[in-house]
UniProtKB/TrEMBL annotation:
InterPro entries: FapA, FapA_b_solenoid, FapA_N. This is DUF342 domain-containing protein. Residues 5-177 form the Flagellar Assembly Protein A N-terminal region domain. It comes from the Bacteria. Transmembrane segments: none annotated. Keywords: Coiled coil. Residues 339-369 form a coiled coil.
């Protein structure tokens, strides 16, 4: 078979290609699936062999368009990260489906706790699934990322049973790695001259509206059942607004955690984690450290600017009047540079490893000193270990790249929407139905779902 075919392995031993040498006739008696498979396996390729492709090659040898992808490896899967799961919310979250409508009334079922009550539980990070190259070499999997749970205000974390318990009674505020229990400042009705500006060390709960010109600051969560106009809200926790935001281009809302609202109209919202809106984000400036979602059946982002660290997802982006809309996913140019350098290192190590393997085989054939052979074996082991580390880094880089290059539209993506990912931009010229926008080879690509 060597005189008729050659094999090239690419992508860090994760893909094998079969090439047919030109102007060489292969005898009909040599064209068998069994002999071709045996020859491929003799080259050390043991995993992910695509027998259906080999069969097609044998049956259509004269017309087959080479190269043929004859084997595919399996990349390792990173384990699930450790999480802090709220005890009072885990049941509700486990039964929530993407297509379910959000009931804003449920947002104001405020979690409370009494002294000694279990308020959250830590789940441990899980082991990942190892990968395997086409040569059958195992690529170790990376365990999920752990989190360090901190004792919050009026809570304590028990390291033995991985549970967080309340040390006093009050309202519960959940963060990524701690739980706080705060007293609550409650305003029955609207914020007015009677209440004045609010600055409180715990949670703030307002059952009415927040008119223009007022300022609310809270160390915990801010929950507003009515409408927020051109007011200023600053929260170290989460902000939940049941009636929506009518910012008039003047007010602003900032929170360290998640922001949730019925709608945002001409507002300015900054969230350290996620922004989730049920209906529309209209002519507003929204910036989230992680994700922005607007996925109800009438969820629409039109006009203004939306910036997210990881992903932006909406049922519809833009509108039929072609309002100028900027959608931007933050990127890190340094990551791309590191990824390219790592790829070069992988190629160099693979080439050196191949030469070392050949040298070892020659030395063993010539029965050279065992000590000399062992030095070569040690070098091979070191190179293999370096490759394993680089495989892990490449997988982590791929995960980060995928996270920050995602814009998903379940309905319509309208023209005059400008999408930016990192330093790259693309203006949408024609409508798309059900699309996903991502970065591929330094170019923004729009795929239909």
């Amino acid at each position: 078979m060597d005189q008729w075919f050659s094999i090239k392995v690419e992508e860090s031993d994760m893909r094998a290609l079969l090439f047919k040498k030109e102007d060489i006739e292969i005898p009909s008696e040599q064209r068998s699936l069994l002999s071709l498979t045996a020859w491929i396996e003799s080259k050390g390729i043991r995993h992910g062999i695509r027998h259906e492709v080999l069969k097609e090659v044998v049956e259509n040898l004269d017309t087959f368009l080479f190269p043929a992808e004859i084997a595919i490896g399996k990349l390792p899967t990173i384990g699930e990260a450790a999480q802090l799961i709220p005890s009072c919310l885990s049941e509700r979250h486990s039964h929530t489906e993407d297509h379910e409508k959000i009931d804003l009334k449920r947002l104001f079922i405020i979690p409370t706790a009494t002294a000694g009550e279990l308020v959250a539980r830590k789940t441990l990070a899980t082991d990942g699934i190892p990968g395997i190259t086409v040569f059958g070499d195992t690529i170790p999997a990376q365990k999920g990322k752990d989190i360090s749970i901190q004792n919050g205000q009026n809570t304590v974390f028990d390291k033995d049973d991985l549970c967080v318990y309340a040390t006093t009674s009050g309202e519960v505020t959940y963060k990524k790695n701690c739980v706080n229990i705060y007293p609550v400042f409650k305003v029955q009705g609207d914020v007015s001259l009677k209440t004045g500006h609010i600055d409180f060390v715990g949670n703030v709960h307002i059952t009415g509206d927040v008119p223009s010109g007022f300022k609310i600051q809270a160390k915990g969560d801010v929950r507003i059942e009515g409408v927020v106009e051109a007011a200023e809200i600053i929260s170290q926790g989460n902000v939940i607004i049941g009636g929506g935001v009518l910012g008039q281009g003047k007010g602003s809302i900032r929170c360290d955690g998640n922001f949730t609202s019925l709608y945002i109209n001409q507002g300015k919202v900054f969230a350290g984690e996620n922004i989730e809106v049920v209906q529309t984000i209209l002519h507003s400036y929204c910036e989230a450290g992680q994700n922005i979602t607007c996925l109800s059946s009438n969820g629409n982002i039109a006009g203004g600017t939306c910036i997210a660290g990881n992903e932006i997802a909406a049922y519809e982006i833009g509108n039929e009047t072609y309002s100028k809309t900027l959608i931007y996913i933050k990127g890190k140019d340094n990551d791309q540079k590191v990824s390219f350098e790592d790829e070069q290192k992988i190629i160099e190590l693979q080439q050196n490893l191949e030469k070392l393997q050949q040298l070892k085989a020659v030395m063993e054939q010539r029965k050279m000193e065992q000590l000399t052979i062992m030095k070569i074996v040690n070098t091979i082991n070191q190179s293999t270990s370096q490759l394993t580390v680089l495989y892990k880094e490449k997988e982590k880089m791929r995960d980060r790249n995928q996270l920050r290059t995602a814009v998903t539209i379940k309905g319509t993506l309208h023209p005059n929407v400008e999408i930016g990912i990192g330093k790259y931009k693309r203006k949408v010229q024609s409508p798309y139905s059900s699309a996903r926008v991502s970065m591929e080879e330094k170019e923004i690509i729009i795929h239909s779902l």
